[in-house]
């Protein structure tokens, strides 16, 4: 009985999950070519993407996971008197019905400690976690 | 020199495009001799700026840990190189690290090869690099990557300077300038 309940629960949550995930559209993710520095952990990369919140309520990108690197973090580049600065951000706010672009010189997903070189044409698998929509898988093409 | 350059930068910010002349990037009027330097190249040889007379040089500053701004600049410069076609033989990108602690000549070579094998990285002692930054008005700020992280980032000015065939500092390009404009400027400087 308990097993059946657990299965049902798993099935239900998976269904809810899939439905919820449809509310954020992940458009054309791409990664900048980058060197893994011989797998020393010193090579980093960046992924950019357009996030479209198709739901009627605000959401937020809160975490990213990728097997391509030791860690994936959400970062923001900003400019101050000609100096380009970078800082981690806890989340990227996604207003209802709006598009938010992660692009060079702005928000990006930083891949810390690349396991191998990101060569043009290759794919980087990612899992983006949204506060309300849950996890959404994506594949970024290296350019 | 440094003060002169900084004033020029301020003037540029004030005058903007009005003073730009035929180039699309902010130009220096009048152009002056680009401050020379001698550093260690990513190919293991000396990089002496003045030895590149006869070529147009794009001089940038950054570091290999940088995932966003530096690769964007280098990818743009690689595109510029491609757009130049045959004229690219007289165009040289020199990329000076702001992070000698992590960026050995070998690290720079690996990092730059992703963008273009002909790009030259330059590193040196803290003092040598600080002197070059002073001469070009490049500021840096070293900060922890995150609270309690052993890693660090180096915030840095992200201008790319254009140096003409005669070794004169003629223009500076802020981050994010359209690469077609840079390519046009390099072609102008190459006399094409």
Describe the protein in words.
The complex is a heterodimer of chains A (143) and B (192). Helices cover 14% and strands 52% of the residues of chain A. The longest helix of chain A has 20 residues, at 2-21. In chain A, strands 1, 2, 3, 4, 5, 6, 7, 8, 9 and 10 form a ten-stranded mixed sheet that branches. Chain A is globular, with a radius of gyration of 17 Å. With 143 residues, chain A is mostly beta strands. Chain B is of the alpha+beta class. Chain B is built from five helices and ten strands; from the N terminus they run H-E-E-E-E-H-E-H-E-H-E-E-E-E-H. In chain B, the strands form two sheets. An eight-stranded mixed sheet of chain B has the order 1-10-9-4-5-6-2-3, sandwiched between helices. In chain B, strands 7-8 form a two-stranded antiparallel sheet. In chain B, strand 7 and strand 8 (152-157) form a beta hairpin. In chain B, helix 2 (69-84) packs across helix 5 (179-190). The radius of gyration of chain B is 16 Å and the shape is globular. The relative contact order of chain B is 0.22. The model of chain B is unreliable at 7-20 (pLDDT under 50). Strand 5 of chain A pairs antiparallel with strand 8 (152-157) of chain B.
What's the main sheet of chain A like? 10 strands, mixed
Count the DSSP helices of chain A.
1
> What oligomeric assembly is this protein in?
heterodimer
Largest sheet of chain B: 8 strands, mixed
Poorly predicted sequence stretches spanning 5 or more consecutive residues of chain A = 7-21
The global form of chain B is globular
The beta-strand count of chain A equals 10
Name the largest protein-protein interface in this structure: A-B, 27 and 31 residues
Helix content of chain B: 25-40%
**CA radius of gyration of chain B:** 16 Å
Poorly predicted sequence stretches spanning 5 or more consecutive residues of chain B: 7-20
User: What Rg of chain A do the Cα atoms give?
Assistant: 17 Å
Give the number of helices of chain B.
Answer: 5
Order of helices and strands of chain A: HEEEEEEEEEE
- The residue fraction in helices of chain A comes out at 10-25%
